[in-house]
Amino acid sequence: MNKVILMGRLTRDPEVRYTQTNNTLVASFSLAVNRRFARPGEERQADFINIVAWSKTGEFCSKYFKKGQQVGVIGRMQTRTWDDEQGQKHYVTEVVAEEAYFADSKKDGDMGGSFDATFGTMPSTSTGSDFEISSGDDLPF
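Now predict its structure.
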């Protein structure tokens, strides 16, 4: 199975190009993905992952993603090689994005409304739970 799930910040705006053969849109960008743990006394490190998005996904990324924005990407890992004009072989490992999502809060002034994609949190209530069980006699079991 080849499945990659990443959440990170864009290191630059997506670059768009089109294939020569069939004029297909390709967007490429890089994500800075924080490592899970940091050694005591050291700053948390990040990995810089190259992302490639094709067709509609690439169009979405190029239109809405900007440098510094936190995004989520689901895709597959891919390696490829090519020879340059001098005959030197180049290798690259990248993630081919199959899905792309916004992953941080909307900035003030952006099209109104609010969006928060914080995962794993429950809304807090100051007065406690809205759900109560009064007595065992009223329960049907």
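The domain at 4-108 is CATH 2.40.50.140 (OB fold (Dihydrolipoamide Acetyltransferase, E2P)).
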